[in-house]
Amino acid sequence: MVERVVDWRGGELRGVGRISARSPFATKGHVPGYVGIDCLAQAAAVLRGLEQGLARHGTNPELGYVVGIRKARFEARTLPLERELTTHVRFLGGAGSLAEYEAELVEGEKAYVSAVLSTFRIPGMKRSDE
After folding, report:
1. Cys-Cys with 7: which of 14, 54, 107, 117 at CB 3.0–4.6 Å?
2. In this structure, how many other beta carbons lie within 10 angstroms of the beta carbon of residue 115?
3. Concatenated DSSP letters for 75-129?
4. pLDDT tens profile 41-60
5. Is the dihedral of CA 122, 118, 43, 57 positive or negative?
6. Containing domain of residue 17, as a range?
7. What is the CATH number of the domain that holds 103?
């Protein structure tokens, strides 16, 4: 859901993407608002990968999972399909395999979803696209 990085510096990222009309959650031109949590998690994963230099080294990223969601706010019941959405994510801190991010999904001035996500990375376990 993150198609491109617009800005990245000092533990913060702003990315732009869209939710595909082919999403399994899509009905009548939108998806449920909770799909925004996945948008936030993917943006956090992009930030983590950039911070670790994975794109530069061509390394396949380690698997990670959202293990906690705090301060979640859903400003809309649904999210639009095929429209440019911006995700802002900021690394708050972490220890070892645990990390915490503050993130929000917006379209222009309209906020859709915001939350603090806790993630857990599984060291050594890589994603396989096979």
Report:
1. 14
2. 22
3. S-SEEESSS-EEEEEEEEEEETTEEEEEEEEEETTEEEEEEEEEEEEEEEEEP--
4. 999 999 988 887 755 555 66
5. negative
6. 4-126
7. 3.10.129.10
